[in-house]
Design goal:
- The structure is a single chain.
- The chain has 314 residues and is an alpha/beta fold.
- 26% of the residues lie in helices and 33% in strands.
- Strand 3, helix 5 and strand 4 form a beta-alpha-beta unit.
Length: 314
């Protein structure tokens, strides 16, 4: 066996297709088909998507095996997987799978591959399966550029840590009113809201953008204008920006709760939050509600920019 084959390790991250998820739920293809067609949907689209993905997975595996040792990794095992310091990570998309993998494979070169370009645009999927061999050769030789991605970090007072590539959500599981104490710098207040969103540069074109659009729409309606924009706030910011933004959703003013700390930039000082929710308090990342930390009464969270960075091959 040649030297290249023994030294290079490639982790290929894959996911279940919609068809596979249906089979897990309904046990057989026939039952899955009955369910989908009863709803008036096209079951053939599910089959076609699965076919293209499985073909891409097979082709990617064959190509990568010629370059090194390949370890297949299912999406659900990514959070508990221990990546090696010299691993190269290949993710057979969509974008959400790339983002979810990034926060567990920091400091490693990560390659997003589009398994079905006719179906997925793929902002984080710049490569095709057919490009893998020359691409990986360049990556191993350190001839490819990487784009740094800064992550958000939530650390609880019991030591638990959660990272977010796009954003973190802090609130109640059911998105009903959350109670907590929030502080930034020397300012501290009690709040009641439907939750706090922490946005990274990568996430600034998603949830963050919708928050700003909603604020501008409210201001326009209140002032009878069509051109109001939130002052001094970027509509988006760079993936490698060394700061975050926090946004409080639907803050409620009362005798016991205030609404001064509802939007701001987290840079040098962390944002600190102490839960006052007796149950169902959570912090989850990147819209994946199953990837969360419990955040109930008395637990405190420190929100800051992560020191680790993700490295997306471009």
């Amino acid at each position: 066996m040649n030297r290249r084959m023994t030294e290079n390790k490639i982790v290929l991250v894959k996911r279940r297709t919609r068809l596979q998820e249906l089979i897990v739920r309904y046990n057989t293809v026939q039952q899955a088909q009955f369910y989908i067609e009863r709803l008036g949907a096209d079951f053939g689209d599910y089959v076609q998507e699965d076919h293209h993905y499985q073909l891409a997975l097979e082709q990617a595996t064959v190509q990568l095996q010629q370059l090194g040792r390949v370890q297949l990794l299912d999406r659900e095992h990514v959070p508990s997987f221990i990546f090696g310091p010299d691993d190269v990570v290949v993710v057979l998309g969509q974008d959400g799978l790339v983002a979810n993998t990034m926060k567990y494979a920091t400091e490693l070169p990560l390659i997003g591959v589009n398994p079905d370009p006719q179906r997925w645009d793929g902002v984080l999927l710049p490569f095709r399966v057919q490009e893998l061999q020359p691409l990986l050769t360049d990556v191993f030789a350190r001839r490819r550029q990487v784009k740094e991605v800064r992550l958000a970090r939530a650390q609880l007072n019991d030591g638990q840590v959660l990272y977010g590539v796009n954003d973190l959500f802090i609130g109640r599981k059911t998105h009903v009113s959350a109670r907590y104490q929030i502080s930034y710098g020397s300012v501290m207040e009690q709040q009641s809201s439907s939750g706090i969103i922490i946005s990274t540069g990568m996430g600034s074109t998603g949830w963050f953008k919708s928050v700003l659009a909603g604020a501008a729409g409210i201001m326009n309606a209140a002032n009878g204008r069509q051109d109001v924009q939130p002052p001094s706030v970027p509509s988006s910011f760079g993936w490698d920006s060394p700061y975050l933004y926090y946004s409080v959703r639907e803050p409620f003013p009362s005798r016991n709760t205030s609404t001064d700390l509802v939007f701001g930039r987290i840079e040098h000082d962390p944002l600190r939050i102490v839960s006052q929710m007796p149950e169902d308090g959570v912090i989850f990342s990147d819209g994946v509600e199953s990837d969360y930390l419990e955040f109930n009464s008395g637990v405190s969270a420190t929100i800051s920019i992560a020191q680790q960075k993700a490295h997306l091959v471009i």
